[in-house]
Amino acid sequence: MNDFQPILTIHAGQPGSATLDYYLAHEGYRAARRAVLDMNSDEIIQMVKHSNLQGRGGAGFPAGVKWSFIPRDNKRPKYLICNADEGEPGTFKDRMLITHNPHQLIEGMIIVSRAIDCHLAFIYIRGEFVKEARLLEAAVEECRTSNILGKNIFGGKYDLEVLVYRGGGAYICGEEMALIESLEGKRGWPRIKPPFPAIEGYLRCPTIVNNVETLSNLPHIINNGAEWFRSIGASPDSPGPKLYCLSGHVKKPGVYEAPMGTELTTLIFNHAGGTPEGNKLKAVIPGGSSAPLLTAGEIEGLKMDFPSLTAAGSMLGSGGIIVMDETTDMVQACYNLARFYAHESCGQCTPCREGTAWMTKVLRRFTQGQGRREDIDLIMDITDNIGGLVDFSEGSFGKTVCPFGEAVSWPVRAFVDKFRDEFEAYLPKEAAA
Amino acid sequence: MPLLKLDDHELEVPKGTRILDAALKVGVEIPHYCYHPALSIAGSCRMCLVEVEGMPKLQTACSTPVGELPPEKKIDGRYDMVVHTTTGKVTAARKLVLEFLLINHPLDCPVCDQAGECSLQDYSFKYGQAHSRFIEDKRVRPREELGSGVVINHNRCIMCTRCVRFSREINGTGELFVEKRGYHSKIAVFNGKSLDNPLAGNVADICPVGSLLLKDYVHSTRVWHLSHTPSVCTECTAGCSITVDAANDRIYRIVSRENDQANGHFICDAGRYAFHAYVEGVLTEPLMRVKRGWKALSWDLAYRTVVDQIDRHGGKEAVRALASPTFPNESSFLLGQLMQRLSDKRNVAFILVEKGADQTFPAGFKISGDKGGNRRGAEDMISGLATGFKSFFKDEGGVLLVMDADGRAEVTADLKRLFKGSSFKVVLASNVSDVTTLADLVLPVAGPFEREGTVTNDQGLVQWLQSVLERKGLARPAWLVLAELDRLLTGEASLYTCAGDITWKINRTISAYSQATRFKLGSKGQFLTGTG
Amino acid sequence: MSFAFTADHKKRFSALLKQYPDRRSAALPALHLAQDQEGYLTTETIETLAQMLDITPATLMDTISFHTLFHTRPRGKYLLQVCQTLSCSLAGADEIVDHLSHRYQIKVGETTPDGRFTLLKVECLGACETAPVVQINDDYYEKVSKEKLNRILDKLP
Questions:
Q1: Of B323, B21, B16, B497, which is closest to residue B6 (Cα–Cα)?
Q2: Rounded to two decimals, what is the model's pTM?
Q3: Closest approach of A261 to chain C, Cα-based (Å)
Q4: Of A165-169, A369-373, B153-157, B255-259, where does mean pLDDT reach its minimum?
Q5: Which residues of C touch A249 (CB under 8 A)?
Q6: CA distance B521 to B377
Q7: I need a surface site. Which of A336, A349, B130, C77 has the fewest CB within 10 A?
């Protein structure tokens, strides 16, 4: 693993890497051209299925399998939406990919679009990324003038248009059903599933939503083959290069590309230089704020891929690693995240709308030194009632329309569960006794 | 067809039927808020969560369809889906969803008009927990008037969004929307605008809690004091089914009554508030025009006056009548019968009532432009006898017998001319109107909510009109007055003791009405043979 | 005070309507366009846009009020948006907020009397590796210390 050469971020930092000229000079659009002119839909889908590419947005669903859900006999137009609504705290890899290599993303989009017979694709990018949106528009324009997008691309018989769509500022719009609603011009209230977007998505037409990083992998899979992809990483069940985002208490925060399954300790201490001033590591959020945190004791030998993290009681999610050292006040950190989720709750369903606000109010009262002993269990109970225990044991399970319920519940639960002593320390002196 | 097992019930349902719809059909209660049969599915309140075998998480019954399994995969060898609504998981879920709903809900029951018909009360009692663990500050917002007589109490709102979906899907104005998101979400109308559409009041009917209420009704009574009488609205020819809520011989409100053969689930504001119009100017005794004004008569004297006037002014041949499209079929039937016995001429015309343009709404609701509520019925009753208004001008008149139209008669120049050209005008009416002021003799009859009988809407649906209030003073049912006049003028005694007796006669006399018997009308009515 | 797109924006809006398979999809792009032009969305702007998109103003307001980037009240010339979510909080976002609040003598959510600066706390801006992060109007300023921020603010026209 030490001699791993970056694949997705190989051009990062090179002058002009975002331009079409640069990309073409570095084998750019070779895969898309092949996909459009020499491959058919089944071949592309099979190849990607075989590669075991899992979604990099957070859910980890196998990309090729998702594409195969599009019903063949459906006469309605098909749509591809690139999810660039990167809002998961601790995650900043998509911004990096867009900034340094927008064409890699566009090429990936052409490959998927070809596979699912889509002729109009969207890049839904969070509204705050203004510079990045302009960059994408410029890249798309370059493609249009070079017959890479538009009619009869690459001189073949396939048309494809890409539109860059700026969001309006809502984390929930990163959830695919809410994203689709927002793209339709409505409020981002996630639709109930079923029907799934592959059957009824944008404008009730078959739609695929894929993350930026997922799409960026595709040119490489087409160029080098599924076997090559499977060979990268600790296990062929969860393979490929992965962009890990390290932030928080590390000396060198940033995006680090490494094979899937790289050990978490390697990422924190080798790549990111470890904690500042040699402070002791206290806890790590391994996959974006929605992933339950792990204590320093729990991360020894932990491989950063989907199955390993699930087995450890957390999730790989977006790969956003937030490191917390001994100077971290875990109660404040917990409140910080609860407040984030309360702010971003879309409000559609009862448990999340009322529960996130309630939980945040209790936590705030806690941080102000007015917590009661029973509040600690109350918080656990509230999280339970919104999002359920990770193992769906009897009497507790997610009750919400969308995974936001689990996203707020599991992390907050983990904070309270694993740092109960810090919560107890916040109790007013009489109660703590 | 797929076989569903729902608790102890086994039922075959068309593929795609939602679990909640199946449950409603067999009477299994699955509590719900955001679901409404006339609106799109939201699946957001999470109250209807049920356990579906084979699915790890609870599913919302309102949105989960019953599918079909291949024979080898059927549950217990026969079922396509097995649903449990009373397991520990389900009862726990309901309890906890209710806890969430109540944390910001004020303890307003003692002052809230929804009390007694509130789903939050009912479900809390049945499925909730007795205490709240919430000790934080509640979200507090002031009450707002939205317009069209609708007020919203934001603190009580549970964000089921029925009102927003109604505003978009049923009345099409899209005036209500959800503002902001998350905990700060609230129902709103756009900046400075007010709710302004003919169906506005329905949002108060469909609001499951005491958030949306009608100004007209708030703080006037308690629902448990009210009697609920199923009846029909007669303000226009759409003939919507309604429930009239009254106490102490006073109507407090009218709400819609579900009838998939007529109005569906809603009524318009005109019908909803119509009962107010009949409270003033109630006629309580026969009145005779005299030089100084009006003189009260006994019924005996009133009847004798009519007979007398007919003798003096051209006799039976010269009698003409104006039927009204607002009275039930029974009155019109007797009027027709009477006029037929008086002469062979076509001597009945219709009093003029507005026939404007219909108002249609996106999901099919219609307000008819024809404000003669029972016009179809009235025309059916006197068919063959009816003639045009203007033909009356050919002859100088004898006695004119007029059925008034509950304040909706158009007093045109022609009507005034007709009145002038008739020697004696007898008007049967319940309230003082522009028509009664032109009469010579006013006979007080039952008002719109005091009448009984059948009415026929413009689709040919016959429904039973049920009386709600007592007649005032000496007012009598119109059919009774006409039967008595018939007896006095033709010698033919009728044996009718109630409106229903006349309905039976209609069933035997007019073939299209043969199936519209009281038995068959039930609560949803019966279509005329050859229609529906 | 009625609203109309500038000639250039009008062209862009017409192009938008043609590009999207459904008119209503053009809502967010249209709102960004109008807000960039006017600074914020007035009632008249919303009514005009709603008409152009063939929806009711209430329906458009539904979308507007859901998304935090759209403002229906005037804001300062410079919108100082300080990220307060975990990584930035661990890097000292609270001090940055206090610093700005003190520098401009306004509380969070308020605008300076001269209308130049509005101070807001926002959630994760997606640039956690360079925490703390402040977004001023459309631009990200990353790894800001109090001194660096002062220098940036001093230079603003």
A1: B21
A2: 0.94
A3: 22
A4: A369-373
A5: 90
A6: 15
A7: B130
Q: Can you name the CATH fold of A241-325?
A: Ubiquitin-like (UB roll) (3.10.20)
Long-range contacts of C55-58 (CB under 8 A, 24+ apart): C55/A185, C55/B174, C55/C24, C55/C27, C56/B173, C56/B174, C56/B175, C56/B190, C57/B190, C57/B191, C57/B193, C58/B167, C58/B174, C58/B175, C58/B176, C58/B177, C58/B188, C58/B189, C58/B190, C58/B193
Residue matched to tokens 């219709």: B350
Bond from prior residue into C132 cis (ω within 30 degrees of 0): yes
How many Å apart are CA B511 and CA A79, to the nearest integer? 59
Chain-chain contact of C126 with A320 (C-beta, under 8 angstroms): no
Q: Please answer yes or no on whether B174 and C61 come within 8 Å at the CB atom.
A: no
What's the average model confidence in pLDDT over B342-369? 91
Q: Taking an 8 Å Cβ-Cβ cutoff, which residues of chain B contact chain C?
A: 167-168, 173-181, 188-193
Domains, chain C, in order of start with CATH, read 7-66 (1.10.10.1590), 78-155 (3.40.30.10)
CATH number of B3-96: 3.10.20.740
Other chains touching A, judged by 3 or more CB pairs under 8 Å: B, C
Q: What is the mean pLDDT of residues B241-256?
A: 97
Using the structure block, give the residue that is written with the tokens 């807000």.
C35
ipTM, two decimals: 0.96
A vs B, Cβ pairs < 8 A, gives 98
First-to-last alpha carbon distance for chain A, in angstroms, is: 51
Asked whether the predicted pLDDT for residue A203 surpasses 70, the reply is yes
**CA A399 – CA B354 distance, rounded (Å):** 54
Asked if the Cβ–Cβ distance from C85 to A171 is below 8 Å, we say no
**pLDDT tens for each residue of C71-125:** 999 999 999 999 999 999 999 999 999 999 999 999 999 999 999 999 999 999 9
Give the pLDDT confidence score for residue A194 in this predicted structure.
Answer: 84
Choose among B253, B191, B189: nearest CA to B221: B253
Residue A35: what are its φ and ψ, rounded to 5°?
A: -60, -40
pLDDT of residue A392: 45
Interface test with B, best of C66, C67, C68 (most B CBs within 10 A): C66
Do residue A351 and residue B100 have CB atoms under 8 angstroms apart?
yes
Q: What distance in Å separates residue A94's CA from the closest CA in chain C?
A: 9
The residue type found at C92 is: G
- Look at residue B241 and give its three-state secondary structure: strand
Partner-chain residue, chosen from C55, C56, C65, that has the shortest CB–CB distance to B179: C65
How far, in Å, CA of A103 to CA of A222, rounded?
15
Q: Are A265 and A300 in contact (CB under 8 A)?
A: yes
Give C135's contacts in chain A (Cβ within 8 Å).
128
pLDDT digits (tens, 9 = 90+) for A47-65: 999 999 999 998 899 999 9
Residues of chain A with CATH 3.40.50.11540: 20-230
Nearest to C138 among A92, A130, A344 (CB): A130
Averaged pLDDT, A177-193 = 96
Question: B495 or B246, which is more confident?
Answer: B246
- A330-432 to CATH, choices 3.40.50.1000, 1.20.1440.230, 3.40.50.1110, 3.90.1300.10: 1.20.1440.230
Strands A161-166 and A118-125, sheet pairing: parallel
A168 CB neighbours in chain C (<8 A) are 28, 31-32, 63-64, 66-70
pLDDT at B532: 56
B366: number of Cβ within 10 Å: 18
Whole-number pLDDT of residue B395: 74
CA distance B185 to chain A (A): 7
Closest CA to A406 of A415, A397, A395, A419: A397
Query: Chain C contacts of A171, Cβ < 8 Å?
Result: 123-124
Mean pLDDT of chain A: 93
